[in-house]
Structure formats: structure tokens, C-alpha cells
Structure prediction request, 110 residues.
Amino acid sequence: IVATLSGHTAPIRAAAFSPDGKRLYSAGDDAIVQVWDVEKRSVTAKLAGHSAAIRALVVSPDGNTLASGGDVEPDSTVSGTPLSLLSLVGPDAQGRVRSSSVTITGVHTG
Prediction:
């Protein structure tokens, strides 16, 4: 074990490194994406927006975009189809993380 990072309040289901290896993104059952500074081993941002567990994370090849996908709340008003929420992340001129989100409905898996 190189390091133990503490911060999530529920099991982690997905993790991804930025292409340069400087950031680690983690997410899971607490429905939060945490952005970690790998060298400092500390959280630099917490991205909210999901209403249920996050199951997948992927970082774009240029490192400027992070996509996250997750479960649907059991009482969701979406009828019969899974719902994914994508959190888009990119550094601004000062290196701070900014985010926006889009909701995708009607996604069929399997």
C-alpha cells in the first residue's frame, strides 16, 4: 500500500487518474466525486450532483473532462430507464476545478 486516502462516507465504486497522474478522482455509494491531489494526498474538490451511487468514472485523454455515471434513486420519476448524470470537470486558469452537469435520460444498458 502506497497511501490510504480517507474522505468518502460509503464504499468507493470507481476511481480514475488524470493522464498526467497528478489528480485522482474517486466516487461511490456516497454519490460524491472527490478530486485528490496525488502528491499532497488531499482532497481538492468535492463534486455533488448525483442522487445515488456513482459506478463509473472516465477521464478524457487531455485530462480536462471527467464523466461520471451512476444509479437511479429508487423513487426516481424516470419511468423504466436508467438515468446517468455526467459531471464535467476542467481546471481554470488558476488550476481550480470547475464543474457543470447534464442529465441523460432514456439510456438503455445491457
